[in-house]
Amino acid sequence: MNRRELLKSTCAAGACACLAAWTGTLSAGDAPGNGKPKDWQVDFMRARLENVLEIITTTLDEATQAKVLARLGRECGRQVVKGYEGNPEAYWAQIKGLWLERVDYDKERGVIRLTEKARTQCNCPLAALMKVPRNLCLCSVGTQEGICEALFNRPAKARVDESVLRGGRRCCFTVTLQPPNKDA
Questions:
Q1: For residues 115 and 170, is the Cβ–Cβ distance under 8 A?
Q2: Could you give the 3-state DSSP secondary structure of residue 120?
Q3: Which of 2, 13, 92, 156 is the most buried if burial means most Cβ atoms within 10 Å?
Q4: Is the pTM of this model over 0.85?
Q5: 3-state class of 175 per DSSP?
Q6: Quick check: 91 and 81 in contact, CB under 8 A?
Q7: Under DSSP, is residue 174 helix (H, G, I), strand (E, B) or coil?
Q8: Quick one: 117 and 141 in the same domain?
Q9: How many CB atoms lie within 10 A of CB 54?
Q10: With 0-12 CB in 10 A as exposed, 13-18 as middle and 19+ as buried, what is 97?
Q11: Assign residue 131 a region: left if phi > 0, alpha if psi is -120 to 50, beta otherwise?
Q12: Which pLDDT tens digit goes with each residue over 8-47?
């Protein structure tokens, strides 16, 4: 599905009407850019994001869902790792204090196994704020790829081995570093 088709399906699902209704409810003091969002704005955007995620998972084929969610996650990963580019050990040491239990890095094979701490809820900040689909783990695949691409300055491919959203006790990922880009 291309961007135009995605927008058509989103509009058909009512997202455009929601935006039109939202813009009609703003007063001059509530206009975007006038400081901190109002509670109703945060609630509104949370509900819209829930709708977008639901639309993605119910209207797109699995391969397209994976591409969209992984791309979203890749951008998140690049933000998360800022300041640690080229320094994986420092990054891993930092997140071991937060959510990572273990990292196994086979430098020769370029394979990284990330084992997060056991928990009962998804680690993604979105999951703490709203209902998320089980396949949101595809976003985390992109996050791990984005993180490792920044840490190692080369492409990476990730997969989910275990996931809290899918019934696991923790989230675990395997990331395989790809040959460096010749254009980089």
A1: yes
A2: coil
A3: 156
A4: no
A5: strand
A6: yes
A7: strand
A8: yes
A9: 14
A10: exposed
A11: beta
A12: 444 444 444 333 333 344 444 555 555 676 788 888 888 8
